[in-house]
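Weekly puzzle thread! Below is a chain. First person to post its structure in token form gets bragging rights.
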Amino acid sequence: MRHRPALVTAGTALAGALALAGCSGSGSGSSGSGSSKAELSVSGPYMPQPVSADMAAGFLTIANKGGAEDELTAVTSDVAGQVTMHSTMGGAMREKISFAIPAHGQLVFKSGGNHLMFEKLKHQPKQGQTVTVKLTFAKSGPLTVEMPVKSATYNPSTGH
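Winning reply:
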């Protein structure tokens, strides 16, 4: 495992984001075409109604139409004590501290794959309710997503 390069990259990304933040109000006319930065959007968010009183899963897709990669670094929600991110490979689930979102690509959280775990639920969300989720990125500003609670057996490909 090569953790040190990721730390250097995250540090470099943070330094770059801070440098850009200092220039945001300069009015220099360099609005840019968007090709040199991430352009993030979220689609298909949902949470299957949890069968457990203290834990739930969440799924969504983050698309990046921009020309620079970004990184999902944290997820929070007022419904849970903590939200963790997990990858699933070969049937093994592993917690991750971040996920890359490639330029002109997407990051998919789906059943059986990458997913969000809402842990230490403050109350058990029910079908028909909505859960507010805040996504934090290394370079881009945070996104707030309204995640509808679907049936425990919901399948986004069929809509049931």
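Puzzle host: Confirmed. Bonus trivia for everyone else. Residues 3-23 form the longest helix (21 residues).
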